[in-house]
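Helix-turn-helix domain-containing protein: structure, please.
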Amino acid sequence: MAESTRSDETPREPDSTRPAAEPLWRDALGSCLRRLRLERGEILVETARRAGVSPQYLSEIERGVKEPSSEMIAAVAGALDTTLADLTLAVATTLLAVPARTVPAGTARAGSAPASPTCRAAYALAA
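Here you go.
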């Protein structure tokens, strides 16, 4: 069946500015996990092996493509020698640090992970 287009329908023009989307939990989590892994000087394969997940799956978690279960998050946290509670606090602290801002429409990927503070700084808050 062919798609029909009504003549009175026009594409909506995006607003020139709009509030930036709040970062997604999975993006902030992934960024935090990647920072922790890199701070340890590990490659993806090493951390994935210890966590019991495939390197591809860990990569997808780090990039915010997959939303892992709490069991998977705990396994990766353990492989990085941290606790689920400390990791959760670090991610939450990172999300709280994101300032409200306005960006031109279409210039920022919704849910892109914040650049600061580092997860290590958030862990220091928990201590």
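Notes: The first strand starts at residue 17 and ends at 19.
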